[in-house]
Amino acid sequence: MLSRDALYNRRRFLSYVAGSPLLLAQQSPEAIGDPKEALNVLDFEAAARKALPPAHFGYLATGVDDDATLRANREGFQRIYLRPRRLVDITRADLRTDLFGTTWETPIGLAPVGNQKAFHAEGELPVVRAAREKQALQILSTAANTSVEDVASALGRPPWYQLYPTSRWEVTEKLVHRVEAAGCPVLVLTIDTQAGRHTETQERFKRLDKRECKACHGTRPEDFYRRKPMFTGIDVEGLRTSNQALSWEHVRRLKKLSSMKLLIKGIETGEDAKLCVENGVDGIVVSNHGGRAEESGRGTIDCLPEIVEAAGGRVPVLLDGGIRRGTDVFKALALGAKAVFIGRPYVWGLAAFGQPGVERVLDILRTELTLAMKQCGARSIGEIGRSSVGYSERRL
Ligand SMILES: Cc1cc2nc3c(=O)[nH]c(=O)nc-3n(C[C@H](O)[C@H](O)[C@H](O)COP(=O)(O)O)c2cc1C
To answer: Is the pLDDT of residue 17 over 70?
Structure first.
């Protein structure tokens, strides 16, 4: 006989699954079969759901606890409206964006997402090829299934590198020296998962998956690193992904370790943004790991204004989380972000269609951003400003 709590949990799960648009999409004949059929990037989610085993889709989809922060990332954008402007000559809209001395085609980059072999047999490589084709900024994850050298060679230039502070400093040092030698210009330190987290949606999807996972994932925490090329030659015995002792002292040490620009990813408050600047950080990524870090219930677009204010123009502020439309990109730029990153959308494209899927996701967002710019009379990224948007009482 099930306890009351167990019954409650079971009921919640069943209603979650029954009400999930993802499940409906999986059963629906309408899941797209070709990237060209996609009307918007959300069309790729159902296609990815169909292509992936349940546990891998759960890893991609999950937030933490009740997924409230995951939802808040979307809902935040829905409370911001655009302020269209008329009779501006908009025959051209220039999306080019300068960051640390490099000019990118657009302000839309690819966020670091680990373990991409869970989504495609070739792992990161189709994404790298799409980034090369589209001249998009790409951040490679510490947890990638492809080495920084292989990515640099397929990309035609070294990527930005995302660093997880492992539990041992000497491992951090080795990784930093290796990526600097590979020519990476920017190091992005992710600091938002140190506390630990409950990825409940992932666990629920795992239960729908009847495959044996141990063969791929191993059974010990160290096994996570043994399959990662960036840890080849490093003693990973006892190594853990997080380091709860991490502090600003660690950031200052890291800054001295290389000549790469140092960005911090996972900032959500003005106080921490101010500390970033005081501790010599070169840029800030406003992020809650796509709602996977903690259940703050606050979307990144809602965190952005206080961070931009605290940074005071001294370092660039970038943002990710919940970007699904060109209008979302526009809103983030209007509120002071210099560029944005997408996570899940390009992975949906990867899972469903490989390189063409990732390219189509980028194309759709670029087209939508261009439209929003023209509708608001902005002919260049620099012309998008605070007066381009307003806040609404209700969700749009
Ligand atoms: C499956 C998955 C794996 C991720 N892996 C990493 C990672 O290895 N390093 C990291 O800094 N962020 C990681 N992230 C977070 C993303 O970089 C990014 O912050 C987030 O996906 C943005 O939100 P979005 O998915 O709503 O676009 C991951 C996100 C997902 C969905």
So the answer is: no
